[in-house]
Protein 1
Amino acid sequence: MPRGIFITLEGLDGSGKTTQIERLAAWLRRRGHEPALLRQPGGTATGDRIRQILLDARTAALAPMAEMALMFADRAQAIAEVVRPALDAGRIVLCDRFTDSTEAYQGGGRELGSELVLAMHRLVCGGLQPDLTLLLLPSLETSLARARRRNQRVEAETGASEGRFEAEKDAFFRRVWQKYREIAAREPDRVAVVEGDLTIGEVHEQIVEAVAERLLATG
Ligand code: TMP
C-alpha cells in the first residue's frame, strides 16, 4: 500500500484556515477520497485536553518553553493516534496546523528561535514532514480583526475563552507573520503561499490548484 499524502494548512489566527479545510475536504470527497481531518493543538481526546490548557485565557504566565513542549506533546499523540495510521493506510491527511505553527508562534512570536523548535521536531516527530503545506497569508490587519471578532463571538455564545493567543499584542503577530514568510522562503517546494485579501472562493481555487498538482505528482 503506498503511503498517503500529508497536507497541512497554516496561517495566522483569522486567516480562514477552518473554512478552507472544510472546502478542500468536500472537494477531495467529490473526487473519491476520504481525508482524515485533524487540528492542532487537539484532534485526539488527550490533545483536546492539552488544547484547553494552551488556549484558555485563564492559563496565566505559561513559560514559553512549557508552551512549546505542550504543543509537541499534543503533536506526538496526534501522530501516533491519527496521522501515522492514516498515512500507512494510504489516506490523505488534512491537518489544521503542524510544526510550522510552533516555529512561527513559539520560535518567532515567543522568540525561542527556529533552531530549538526544529530540533524538537526531529526528536518528537521523527522527521515526519508534510508533503504539502498551504500557507494562508491575508494581510496582518485583516487576520487580526477576524480573529478578535471570532473570539468575542465564541466567548459570548459558549462562555469559553480560547483567546490566550488572540490577546497577544500586534508585535507578537508581526513576528509570527515574519517567521511564516521565512519558512516559505526556505522551503518553496513544500510550502504554497496564498497571499493577499482574496475572497473565500479565490483562496479555494488556489488551494485546489496546488493540491491537484501534488495528487498528479504522486499518482
Ligand atoms: P486555532 O486552532 O484556532 O488555529 O488556534 C490554535 C492557536 O494555537 C493559535 O493561536 C496558534 C497557536 N499555536 C501555537 O502557538 N503553536 C503551535 O504549535 C500550534 C499548533 C498552535
Protein 2
Amino acid sequence: MVLKQVIVSDCEAFLDQNRLKKLVAQAAVSYVLSKISVHSIIGIGTGSTTDFFIDELANHRDKFYGAIASSNASATKLAALGIQVIDLNSTSDVEVYVDGADEINPLLQLIKGGGAALTREKIVAAVAREFVCIADVSKWVDELGKFPLPIEVIPMARSHVARELLKLGGDPVWRQGVTTDNGNYIIDIHGLWPIKTDGSLETCINQITGVVTNGLFSHRTADLVFLGTEEGVTTHKPDSNLDGRSS
Ligand code: 5RP
C-alpha cells in the first residue's frame, strides 16, 4: 500500500515535470520563430526537454533551412520528423542553439552532460550566435555541483583522468555501460558542490591529458533561459534574474 502510494506520487511528479518541459518547449519555439528566416540553421541539443522542443519545431519545418544536432539521437529524431540535418563543418552560421541543462545558476552557467552529449553540445553552443536554455524549474539552483559533473574521456585515459580528478577533491565515478557518440567514456565527479564558477575549474579539468571536455558551461553560458514553473514560463537573462517575468 505504501509502495503503491510512492509509485503513484512518482508518476504524478514525472507527468508534472513533463508538462513544464512542454511549456518551455512551446515558449522556445515561439522565440526561435521570431528570430529565423527560411535560410536559418538552428542548433538542437539533446535530452527529454529538447525532445519536446523538436516535436513543437517540426510543425514549422518549412520556416527554416535545417538543423545541427548535438547527438545522434537528436539527429535521428529530427530526420524522422522531416527536418534536414546539416553537418556543422558545412556552415559557420547557426542562428540560435536550443538545449536543456542539468543545473542552471543565476549567472546562466550550466552543468550539462546528463545525457552524455556534452562535447557536441559545447561545440554547437560555441558556434551559435545565441544559446537558449530550456528547463523545468527543478534545474534552477543557487550554486552548481549537486548534480555530478560529467567529463568525457578518451577510453585508454580513464584511470589516469580519474586519479587526476581525485586531486581536485571530488569523487570520480565511471558511468559504466555508456559510450558517447564520439566513442569515449564518461566520468561523473560527485561531491564538488559548490562548484567554482570563475572559469578556473572548467579550464583546469580540460587541461588533464585524456579529457575531451567537461560539462561545466562557465565560460560559454546560456544567453537566455526559459524556465517552466507552476506559475508559467519565466525568462532569465544574466543581468535580469531578479526580474524573471512570467509570459
Ligand atoms: C544531455 C544534456 C541534457 O541537456 C541534460 O541532461 C538535460 O536533459 P533533460 O532535458 O532530459 O532533463 O546535457 O547531455
